[in-house]
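dumping this here so i dont lose it
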């Protein structure tokens, strides 16, 4: 019996509609229009497509946008100067620097320059620390999207055994914290894990986020498990996930396809994060004004 297919396009559409309604409500209640600033360095075609899609999503959600497009030869210092200026700009709620930048720019240095209150990618050390400590902050978009997909599929997380194959700062590590926050029992597997198939077969929830095409097959999947495939690998046969979909779909209880699974969720969660940042900044300003009046 084939698994339930978790439709990321449908779930992302629902999230975007929800965010658009909440943006309208926030503004109707006296809030400001949230604004996302995007920064793109260079002329990578894929990056241009990604940013264009993000700007379209902003418009559909009622979120304002400001785009900065810089030539490939832009220096690291000039890029960081712009990022810091956006961080100081009271008219900007979220900052997204499209990664990766050109080779001469250190992405970690750029991320470190982002105002944590506007870090809608959830990549700064401040937000990573808040997440690891179980405190509120801005969460990386792809891991947040994985949780949305699991909830949509009705997958019980409390007490479940979850295995994440991959330990990157973008997906694996933040997802560990998110699943722990939902009271799952979490194992992080990676390239040095012994008996990877055996470890994966324990999982009620199996997340593949390692970047190797079709690394995980049917023998990695516990019958009835929920399988979330974060991998997007370009091969001669087209886009492939980290999971051998055709094999795993016959064993899993629910599974995401590639494409059309996790991918669409990233931009949807970016919209949600931009609204979250706007709400937090609005509340902080209101609290500051109240303190000023009390003095």
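and the seq i came up w/
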């Amino acid at each position: 019996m084939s698994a339930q297919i978790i439709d990321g396009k449908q779930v992302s559409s629902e999230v975007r509609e929800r965010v658009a309604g909440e943006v309208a409500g926030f503004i109707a209640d006296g809030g400001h229009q949230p604004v996302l600033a995007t920064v793109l360095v260079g002329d990578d075609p894929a990056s241009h497509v990604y940013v264009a899609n993000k700007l379209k999503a902003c418009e559909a959600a009622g979120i304002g946008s400001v785009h900065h497009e810089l030539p490939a030869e832009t220096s690291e210092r000039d890029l960081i100067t712009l990022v810091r200026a956006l961080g100081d700009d009271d008219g900007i709620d979220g900052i997204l620097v499209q990664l990766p930048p050109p080779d001469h720019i250190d992405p970690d240095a750029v991320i470190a320059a982002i105002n944590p209150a506007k870090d809608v990618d959830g990549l700064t050390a401040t937000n990573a620390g808040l997440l690891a400590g179980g405190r509120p902050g801005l969460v990386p978009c792809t891991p947040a999207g994985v949780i949305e997909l699991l909830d949509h599929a009705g997958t019980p997380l409390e007490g479940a055994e979850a295995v994440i194959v991959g330990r990157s700062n973008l997906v694996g590590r933040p997802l560990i914290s998110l699943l722990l926050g939902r009271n799952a029992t979490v194992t992080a597997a990676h390239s040095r894990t012994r008996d990877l198939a055996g470890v994966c077969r324990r999982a009620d929830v199996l997340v593949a986020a390692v970047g190797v095409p079709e690394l995980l097959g049917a023998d990695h999947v516990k019958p009835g498990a929920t399988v979330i495939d974060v991998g997007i690998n370009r091969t001669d046969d087209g886009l492939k996930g980290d999971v051998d979909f055709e094999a795993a779909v016959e064993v899993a209880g629910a599974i995401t396809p590639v494409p059309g699974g996790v991918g669409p969720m990233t931009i949807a969660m970016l919209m949600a994060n931009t609204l979250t940042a706007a709400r937090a900044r609005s509340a902080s300003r209101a609290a500051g004004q109240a303190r000023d009046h009390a003095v």
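The chain is about 45% helix and 15% strand.
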